[in-house]
Amino acid sequence: MYKSVDDFMKNVKSRTSGEDEFHQAVHEVFSSIWEFLQDRPEYMHAGIPDRIVEPERVIMFRVPWRDDRGMTQVNRGYRVEFNSAIG
Fold first, then answer.
1. Domain boundaries, given as residue ranges, for the chain
2. What is the largest CA-CA distance in the chain?
3. b/e for 37-55, b at 16 or more Cβ within 10 A?
4. In Å, how far are 2, 65, 76, 79 from 71, measured between CA atoms?
5. Rounded Cα–Cα distance for residues 73 and 75 (Å)
6. How far apart, in whole angstroms, are the C-alpha atoms of residue 62 and residue 79?
7. What is the pLDDT of residues 49-84, one digit of tens each?
8. At how many degrees (to 10) do helices 20-38 and 5-15 cross?
């Protein structure tokens, strides 16, 4: 179990290195709900914080486009889904 938001963030950063914007967003959210989670140890023991920050699905696709010189370029696009529940 994590002792602090910073302790939790060390784990997040080790699994998602190089994702600075994601780290900032996770830190902001968990800073605001940390007290709530500490008051409910069953959530911590069930691994809810770790499950919240792990995407359920990641879809990678190609995006072909033509530049100003008429050359075809190909970039990667991503859709990251954290929850597929409907409703």
1. 5-81
2. 60
3. beeeeebeeeeebeeebee
4. 51, 8, 17, 26
5. 7
6. 11
7. 999 999 999 999 999 999 999 999 999 999 999 988
8. 140
The burial of 26, by beta-carbon neighbours within 10 Å (0-12 exposed, 13-18 middle, 19 or more buried), is given as: buried
How confident is the model at residue 60, as a pLDDT? 97
Q: How far apart are CA 11 and CA 2, in angstroms?
A: 9
Place of tokens 């033509």: 66
Residues in the chain: 87
Q: Which residues contact 60 (CB under 8 A, 6 or more apart)?
A: 76, 77, 78
Would you say the C-alpha torsion 43, 48, 50, 52 has a positive or negative sign? Answer: negative
Q: Which amino acid, one-letter code, is at 59?
A: I
At which residue do the structure tokens 């809810």 appear?
Answer: 48
CB 54 within 8 A of CB 80: no
